[in-house]
Amino acid sequence: MISSNDHLKEQKILKNIIKKSLAFVILNSVTHAASVSIGGGSFANLLDASGNDLPTGSQVQLGFFLGVATSKSGDDYTSVDWDSFSPFLGVGSSNPDEVIGTFDAGGGFESAFQISSTLDTDLGDSLPLGFPVRLGFRIFDTTESLIEGAAYNTVVRDVSTWVFNDPGIVTNQPPTPSISGTDDPAMFWEDRANPFRTSIAIPEASSIITLLLGAGLFAGRP
User: Fold this and answer.
1) What digits encode the pLDDT tens for the residues 2-31?
2) From CA 50, how far away is CA 197, in angstroms rounded?
3) What is the number of H-type helices and E-type strands within the chain?
4) In Å, how far are 47, 100, 117, 195, 211 from 96, measured between CA atoms?
């Protein structure tokens, strides 16, 4: 018998596929040219589910929350809000060449990361549509370019530097999303019981197929 948790995982994966397709269309339908430089990163150690430092080169994405108001606190995010995460920097994003990876910064920071990217729509880069949007980081427990199935966690901060405003308006400052410490009341994690840890596991594709087949057989029973 397929458990309710397995069904929820299946539904989440299917929703993510649909959401990513929608986000790709939105990100690639920018109608105005803009160039924007984005800086930021984390100098707090990122960990795997067991609490060990992530290895150098572990993948990180920067994205926005599709359809979520920037006025909404991360403390109030629902599973639907977290699932709306749409990456535009990092592997698996709409700008996949803008890779973000962890590195050993020394001084006790063995798994930090830094962003220094310039996106230009005239050169074919994609920006979010529907400014302003709230930004977030998603970290993965993998150094591979294929991140599907890797354990992860997502973080957002309720601060203005994590809001991406329309770069077409010259008075708007570019976002500088950053994490400077672990004790931050404005920072919220998707798995809030395990901050800084890649604690959210996704079943492998083969397991998903098995679950779907099992669900079909179960549904077909008299």
Assistant:
1) 455 554 445 554 445 444 444 444 444 444
2) 8
3) 3, 10
4) 23, 10, 12, 26, 30
